[in-house]
């Protein structure tokens, strides 16, 4: 059930991402200045100077370049922002500073109205959001560093092969039909994907070990499993012990030579 849950969550995430992109491509709408969509909700953290500039320039760019992609819009506006002088940026930064001060006042008023239980719930939700944000940042970093993809389950192998030709108009419908097909195929057919998953597990085991050893070499042991660190430390500890032993023998020989020299005199 775990693999199926992961795939369902993945499909849901794709659908949400598509909805976000649709919203970004919609006509520009002036956002609410401080509060969230819920009147009883917490005040919304204000935009910084750059984002205020983006919101101001976006309608103009959209009119000048009909049909332009959102990524290109942001790229053009970012270029315009870089060309502004400090004096030209000053109004946006000052507006952002005023909004931050008002946000602190609104937040204090909002928190004063919360019960102890509501405040604890808000604190817990904030921790969860921060943890999710850190997780996203870490995943991006790992992708940049080329961390190998995890091995897949047999059902994942089946879904990746059949999803493109699956029945249904939406991603969720396709996923449901593929999962249903997986349940209906014979054990002999499933064995093929089981073998593919076993081969993929070997692939991942070899690649992740090589990657982790490389991370240790470039000074990123924080990204490595503990057992890899222990394995890497054993040769170093052994070499250090040999070095100490050799030094001890040399020191002993020097002492014996010095003693013989003194006695001969």
UniProtKB/TrEMBL annotation:
GO MF annotations, alphabetized: DNA binding
Keywords: Activator, DNA-binding, Mitochondrion, Mitochondrion nucleoid, Nucleus, Phosphoprotein, Repeat, Signal, Transcription, Transcription regulation, Transit peptide
DNA-binding region (UniProt annotation): 43-111, 148-212
Matches recorded under Pfam families: HMG_box, HMG_box_2
Broad class of the protein's primary localization: mitochondrion
InterPro entries referenced in this protein's UniProt entry, alphabetically: HMG_box_dom, HMG_box_dom_sf, HMGB
Domain HMG box per the UniProt entry, residue ranges: 43-111, 148-212
PROSITE patterns, sorted: HMG_BOX_2
Superkingdom field: Eukaryota
Record carries keyword Transmembrane helix: no
Record's keyword annotation contains Signal: yes
Signal peptide start-end: 1-17
Location(s) in or outside the cell: Mitochondrion matrix, Mitochondrion nucleoid
GO cellular component: mitochondrial nucleoid; nucleus
One of the GO biological process terms: regulation of transcription by RNA polymerase II
Subunit structure: Monomer; binds DNA as a monomer. Homodimer. Component of the mitochondrial transcription initiation complex, composed at least of TFB2M, TFAM and POLRMT. In this complex TFAM recruits POLRMT to the promoter whereas TFB2M induces structural changes in POLRMT to enable promoter opening and trapping of the DNA non-template strand. Upon metabolic stress, forms a complex composed of FOXO3, SIRT3, TFAM and POLRMT. Interacts with TFB1M and TFB2M. Interacts with CLPX; this enhances DNA-binding.
Biological role: Binds to the mitochondrial light strand promoter and functions in mitochondrial transcription regulation. Component of the mitochondrial transcription initiation complex, composed at least of TFB2M, TFAM and POLRMT that is required for basal transcription of mitochondrial DNA. In this complex, TFAM recruits POLRMT to a specific promoter whereas TFB2M induces structural changes in POLRMT to enable promoter opening and trapping of the DNA non-template strand. Required for accurate and efficient promoter recognition by the mitochondrial RNA polymerase.
Name listed for the protein in its UniProt record: Transcription factor A, mitochondrial
Organism from which the protein derives: Dissostichus eleginoides (Patagonian toothfish)
């Amino acid at each position: 059930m775990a693999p199926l849950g992961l795939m369902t969550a993945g499909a849901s995430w794709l659908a949400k991402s598509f909805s976000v992109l649709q919203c970004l491509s919609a006509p520009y709408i002036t956002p609410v200045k401080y509060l969230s969509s819920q009147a009883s909700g917490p005040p919304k953290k204000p935009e910084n100077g750059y984002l205020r500039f983006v919101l101001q320039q976006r309608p103009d760019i959209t009119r000048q370049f009909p049909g332009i992609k959102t990524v290109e819009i942001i790229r053009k506006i970012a270029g315009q922002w870089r060309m502004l002088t400090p004096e030209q940026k000053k109004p946006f930064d000052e507006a952002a500073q005023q909004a931050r001060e008002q946000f602190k006042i609104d937040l204090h008023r909002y928190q004063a109205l919360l019960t102890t239980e509501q405040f604890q719930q808000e604190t817990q939700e904030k921790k969860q959001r921060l943890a999710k944000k850190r997780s996203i940042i870490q995943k991006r970093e790992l992708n940049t560093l080329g961390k190998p993809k995890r091995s897949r389950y047999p059902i994942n192998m089946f879904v990746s092969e059949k999803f493109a030709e699956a029945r249904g108009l939406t991603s969720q419908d396709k996923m449901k039909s593929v999962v249903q097909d997986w349940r209906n195929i014979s054990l002999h057919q499933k064995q093929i994907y089981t073998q593919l998953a076993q081969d993929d597990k070997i692939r991942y085991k070899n690649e992740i070990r090589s990657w982790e050893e490389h991370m240790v070499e470039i000074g990123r042991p924080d990204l490595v499993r503990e057992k890899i660190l222990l394995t890497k430390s054993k040769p170093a500890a052994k070499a250090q012990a040999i070095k100490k032993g050799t030094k001890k023998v040399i020191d002993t020989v020097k002492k014996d030579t010095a003693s013989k020299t003194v006695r001969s005199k």
